[in-house]
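Hi! If you just cloned this repository, the fastest way to understand the data is to look at a raw example. We've pasted two of them here, unedited. The first protein comes first, obviously.
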Amino acid sequence: MIKKQSFGIWFNLVVAVLTVVSLIVYGVNISGEGYFKGASVGNLILYGVIAIIMLAAVIVLAQLQITGTAQKVMEIISGLLRIAVPVLLTLALVNLVSARAEGLGFIYFSNADVLQEVQTPANMSSATGTIANMICLGAAAIFAMIAAFFTLRKKDA
């Protein structure tokens, strides 16, 4: 069963894993010490979880052995889900960037006289976690866009 999966399925699995990793990094970031402790971003977790559920639905729909009209309907649903996933991940990234831009600017670009007070190890760790979160979400969104172009079923020889 595993060997029979198409490249599109594997690519969607990578997107799901990147999304889970980004949610974990986000959770660690807001629960750890530093500048962004407790600073949750609205709907980021909701968008990520919905995207993961949609990816799971795409993968499950591709496993169904359906023919005829039902197959066409499933392909349309799968296509819509594969379009919605990068939209949700991009929305999550935009929300994260807009919520964190001012804080990152404060940490990295403060005046020289307050820089020592601002750039504490905890704040630098928090900022690094935020940047890692942005990279994971951005990669997941880009990979989701790319995954939408791959077929989910292997062609029978």
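Ok, and the second one:
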Amino acid sequence: MPLNDKKVISIILQQCAGVENRCEGYRNEIINVISSIIEYERGHRVQATNVQQKINDKCNAAARFLAQRRGPSDLE
């Protein structure tokens, strides 16, 4: 892995550590989402894919995760 990639990953993990933990597992979910998006972007460079739809789907899944964990009473 090139040095630049390691630095980017290090920065992303550092920033994710500062994200408010809105529910148990939230930070890990965000890290997984960001990891998937980076993977989608890398794949898109090699083979044209509908990367925007994949990113939208992943973000929507993270939103559903948060909504399910927090419940309707936490939305107010």
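That's it. A detail worth noticing about the second one: Residues 30 and 62 are 7 Å apart (CA to CA).
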